[in-house]
Amino acid sequence: MNVAAFVVIAVILTAYVLLDGYDLGVAAIAPFVARNERQRLAAMQAIGPFWNGNEVCLIAGGGILFALFPRAYAASFSGFYLPFIVVLWLLMGRGISLELRDHYPNRMWRQFWDAIFFLSSALLVVFFGVALGNLIRGLPLDAQGYFLGTFAFLLNWYALLVAVFALGALALHGAAFLALRVDGELNQRAKMAVRRIWPVVLVLFVLVTVATFFTHPVGAVAVAFGVLAFAALLALRALARAPEAAIFGISSAFLALQMGAVAATLFPYLLPAFPQSAGAGLSIYDASSSPAALVSALGVSIAGLVAVAVYGTIVWRMLAGKVHVAE
Asked: Which of 37, 101, 172, 242 is the Cys-Cys partner for 246 at CB 3.0 to 4.6 Å?
């Protein structure tokens, strides 16, 4: 049951990366591909029906972590209080900018909210990337599993490298989604962005992979996921002129395989210790609920994931048409 609970956590976080990842990616590239007011509006309308629902995966991830692994939840949320507060402010800034930009006819206000939308989204990716990098590298924990470091400790070279890679990967994902959702000149600019961002992501992928081997023990399963992710990245370049849905599908597969590699690298730990010789950290076996509570919470979590998947599929089928950019 502990392994199944770990898989559920990995699935919900992967779903968040795939879904809210394209929202964040579109925001990160919008200032560079949307050249006028109509194109910027079309970029926001492309994610408009989905962004709020996609963030449910992040909330669900926190709730499921609390239900399945309460010790890990307590240690992570208490140890990373300041970063979590910053993330909340960035989430609010992103939502407010999307909702308020069209309430003010003044061009200056629209440009202000567009800037908030871009900065809050890009910084969210960076913060999530730093958090992921520190999970892989390990955290200084006491005997009870509580974080002993500082905010400055989190800004290490490996975590920052992972953050830059995350920003590039989600920008690539966002460009693929934007090409799928819009037409006209913006569609062509989004496709061009896919081709231009791809080599940057390839270089960062190699750097992060090599750095990970020197940072954390990597098993055969993680290597297999990494090889498949690399193959998906190469396929994305080889099929750069394929149908837009295929490009977005390959981008999604690349991110999903990367998250699989991360989960396999961390398993069976939720919060690995740093340095590695200092202790193992909090694993899925010593951070979980009681067996009865684990079974109940796991059943509810799986049912909730199924409901979210069904709802998300219905919404996508109803609202996933092209956004027409009237030049």
From this structure: 242
What mean pLDDT value characterizes the chain?
A: 85
204-233 tens-digit pLDDT: 999 999 999 988 888 899 999 999 999 999
CA-based nearest residue to 110, from 43, 17, 193: 43
Angle at 150 between CA 282 and CA 124, to 5 degrees: 85
Structure tokens at 249: 């599908």
Q: What is the spatial distance between Cα 20 and Cα 312, in angstroms, rounded to a whole number?
A: 12
Q: How many residues does the chain have?
A: 327
- Please name the residue ranges forming H helices in the chain: 2-33, 37-47, 51-54, 56-68, 70-79, 81-100, 107-137, 151-154, 157-181, 184-215, 220-238, 244-266, 291-319
What is the CATH number assigned to the segment(s) 2-319?
Answer: 1.20.1630
Query: What is the C-alpha to C-alpha distance for residues 57 and 178, in angstroms, rounded to an integer?
Result: 21
Q: Are 173 and 21 in contact (CB under 8 A)?
A: yes
Q: What backbone phi and psi angles, to 5 degrees, belong to 139?
A: -130, 145
pLDDT higher than threshold 70 for residue 279: no
For 106, counting Cβ atoms within 10 Å of its Cβ (0-12 exposed, 13-18 middle, 19+ buried), the class is exposed
**Would you say 177 and 27 are in contact if contact means Cβ atoms under 8 Å apart?**
no
Q: CB of 289 within 8 A of CB of 2?
A: no
Q: Are 82 and 88 in contact (CB under 8 A)?
A: no
The pLDDT tens digits of the residues spanning 162-207 come to 999 999 999 999 999 999 888 888 888 999 999 999 999 999 999 9
Exposed, middle or buried: residue 210 (CB in 10 Å: 0-12, 13-18, 19+)? exposed
Q: Give dist(CA 230, CA 251) in Å, integer.
A: 11
For the entire predicted model, the pTM comes to 0.90
**Span 17-50, pLDDT tens digits:** 998 889 899 999 988 888 888 888 888 888 877 7
Exposed, middle or buried by CB within 10 Å (0-12, 13-18, 19+), for 148? exposed
Kindly list the domain boundaries of the chain, sorted by start residue: 2-319
